[in-house]
Amino acid sequence: MAYSNKVLDHYNNPRNVGTMDKADPNVGTGMVGAPECGDVMKLQVKVNPTTGIIEDAKFKTFGCGSAIASSSLATEMLKGKTVDEALTIKNTEIVNELALPPVKIHCSVLAEDAIKAAITDYKNKFVNTKAAAEVAH
Amino acid sequence: MTGPKLEGDYFRFFGYDRRLALDPDDLQKRFYELSRKFHPDRFARMPPADQQYALDATSILNDGYRILRDPVARAEYVLKQEGFDVGEQRSKDVPPELLEEVFELNMALEELRGGDASARGALEEAEKKFIAMRDRIDGELAALFLEHDAAPGRETLQRMRGVLNRRRYIRNLVAEVQKELA
User: Fold this and answer.
1) Do A40 and B99 touch (CB under 8 A)?
2) Which of A73, A95, B12, B173 has its CA 20 to 30 A from that of A7?
3) Which ipTM value was assigned to this complex?
4) Fold (CATH) for B10-69
């Protein structure tokens, strides 16, 4: 199967590969996977707690070129968005941007799942940190 | 023309109750018997409807044998029949511990990959480890088959599905490390 140039670009020069400290209260981590293809995708966001803006995003994906490209693109889309804006990102945006063929659409779905998982993780932490702070007062 | 009804499931077609622990020798014996029974040559002088029946039966027989003789395919077949999503390409229902585990195993493998010839020993170790994991999973699967056959139920099937998911990941890791060693 031929990959589009954009997929190849993200595959050969993935943006924002890496990991952040999972224990950091400002970091949300999403880990998702698709057993059928053997894919695992880890996506992390670092949020500014006062503005709610995603200041950094990192990913590490083991999987096919489309899965890597989808998560690489996802990290680019996330930076600068608020957490609520991030939740509105749809896999179709990734499909269109990367010109993914139908058999690879599930890779973009996985990336959307990873975004949602990371944001949810951050939000849970945020609520817990606040609750802990209130208890301390 | 009498013969098994062509609809229904592969188990019934082979004359089994729906059970997962099958004896491969017995399955093969039944496959050969049925193959002889439906061999198109034996239907050459029969009415067209019977010839068609024999052809359809032979095709089901071959498909069924391919599925039933492979324990993993057999288990997936039963799961599908019971309405479980099999081979879905999303992370729904994949336990986080499994994803963590697979992620870590992949990380370790990636580190070895970049290395020079001295990494070969470590890669061979990794291969052994993955194969041992796969064998252990196959053991778990065999035990679940017996459990299912003794008392079929969704809870057992649910666990089976989890074991099969894990097996897919480990199978891929085995393939990855072997590609590296080739």
Assistant:
1) yes
2) B173
3) 0.87
4) Helix Hairpins (1.10.287)
